Amino acid sequence: MTGGSETPPYIPVASADLSGSEERYVVEAIRSSWISSTGKFISRFEEEFAILCGAKCAIAACNGTVALHLALLALDVRPGDEVLVPSLTYIATANAVRYVGAEPVFVDVDPDTWCIDPKLLEASISRRTKGIIAVHLYGHPADMDSINHVAAVHGLWVVEDAAEAHLATYKGRPVGSLAKIATFSFYGNKMITCGEGGALTLDDSQLELRLRTLRGQGMDPERRYYFPVTGYNFRLTNVACAILCAQLERKTHILESRQRVFSRYTELLQGIDGIHFQPIANWARTSPWLFCITVDAQAYGRSRDELMTLLDEQQIETRPFFLSLHRLPPFRESSRVRGEFLPVTDHLSSTGMNLPTFTNLDDTHIERICKIIRSGRR
User: Fold this and answer.
1) Do 216 and 278 reside in the same domain of the chain?
2) Long-range CB contacts (< 8 A, 24+ apart) of 301-307?
3) Domain boundary at 228, 249, 270, which?
């Protein structure tokens, strides 16, 4: 028997909860032999997800990035066009704009929501601007009424990037029903997951037809193997949708469990100098995806990165906030030429971090994490 303390158990930043009917439905899909892009779980998922989002239809896609790409294709975004996007978001938001040959123009975020700031949109609109992608960052809805108003005045479309915002609401309305098109991700760390997957929600039947045609290799739905347009294979499998159907059955449990995690973090981290929480607008019900804090190094005594290192040494995984997109190599030169100055984005990007958040994270683990954060202040 050797001396010394035992290594504490590892706590990941995210962990999927597949404890419902996921396995049974996957086995059912396999035994039916419908394992590709046709099968009953696809139509079931699309119907149930559309209802959940308050939209007329939902279209499954192979991941959230593809859903954004597909939306821009359907909206006929072309080379030379510009699309306004927040700089504080996952890179897929801007990458999708580049996929269609257009240019992402970066807009700073609102310090009260961390989402694209409606007050700054007009200053970034040019004759080449075609639309706005409003990201519901870290589960908090963007101010869609204000964004839609600016878009309407200038004849622009709006797309909701709701990849991180399952079950969130804006002024009592579910995200996914607040713009021309909304896109979702079901990646393994998302609140609702199938490993890799995505969806689009919308109300326009003509746009739905165009999206489904483009998603399915461009084939005419009324004439098999006739392809009137160049399309893409952006479909999701029946197996993946089987998992999503099981997840949707447990949506209330998943939501309540993660809300419990958020509440416990808030209670235990309250009052620590230099530790600040994600702001929540009075009109928003956020999606409890990942619990966010920002670290004021001067008040706390450690920087965000130093706190992450401290937690990592104790076998606790965390995530920094997304890097400012306008400073990344693919975008920084064009951003510099436009003279973009995005101080709120840069501040949040350098000070924000995500703590472990998942359905089965128990109070003991939350208490351990918070004890380290509280005792780590210098």
Assistant:
1) no
2) 301/274, 301/377, 301/378, 302/376, 302/377, 302/378, 304/350, 304/351, 304/352, 304/353, 307/353, 307/373, 307/376
3) 249
First to last CA, the chain: 36
> Residue 224 domain-assigned?
yes
- For each of the chain's 378 residues, which pLDDT tens digit applies? 444 567 889 999 999 999 999 999 999 999 999 999 999 999 999 999 999 999 999 999 999 999 999 999 999 999 999 999 999 999 999 999 999 999 999 999 999 999 999 999 999 999 999 999 999 999 999 999 999 999 999 999 999 999 999 999 999 999 999 999 999 999 999 999 999 999 999 999 999 999 999 999 999 988 999 999 999 999 999 999 999 999 999 999 999 999 999 999 999 999 999 999 999 999 999 999 999 999 999 999 999 999 999 999 999 999 999 999 999 999 999 999 999 999 999 999 999 999 999 999 999 999 999 999 999 988
Residue 103 lies inside a defined structural domain of this protein: yes
User: Do the Cβ atoms of 85 and 105 come closer than 8 Å?
Assistant: yes
Do 268 and 242 share a domain, yes or no? no
Residues 244, 275 share a domain: no
**How many domains, the chain?**
2
Report the distance separating Cα 177 and Cα 55, nearest Å: 5
CATH number of the domain that residue 128 is part of: 3.40.640.10
